[in-house]
TrEMBL record:
Stretches assigned to the HMA domain: 5-68
Protein name per UniProt: Heavy metal transporter
Keyword Metal-binding: yes
PANTHER family the record matches: COPPER TRANSPORT PROTEIN ATOX1-RELATED, COPPER TRANSPORT PROTEIN ATX1
Superkingdom field: Archaea
Keywords on record: Metal-binding
Organism: Haloarcula mannanilytica
Record bears the keyword Metal-binding: yes
Listed GO MF terms: metal ion binding
Pfam family, one: HMA
Length: 69
């Protein structure tokens, strides 16, 4: 199995643990995602797997947050 670098996404608008959970769940629902770590303090989400970057950004934005790579 080839090694894939995690994709890091900047997520703006998270203010609490519930926000982190919402973003994490949105990203986990994207096809190809194997693991997600979200940190509101750094405004970052780290995503493992082979998911399309645009799909990841769309998932975060559909959850109500601003996202970019």
């Amino acid at each position: 199995m080839p090694f894939c670098m995690p994709t890091t996404i900047t997520v703006e608008g998270m203010s609490c643990g519930h926000c982190e959970q919402t973003v994490e769940e949105a990203l986990q629902d994207v096809s190809g995602v194997t693991d997600v770590t979200v940190d509101r303090e750094t405004e970052r989400a780290s995503v493992d797997g082979d998911a399309d970057t645009a799909a990841l950004v769309d998932a975060v934005e559909n959850a109500g947050y601003t996202a970019h790579v």
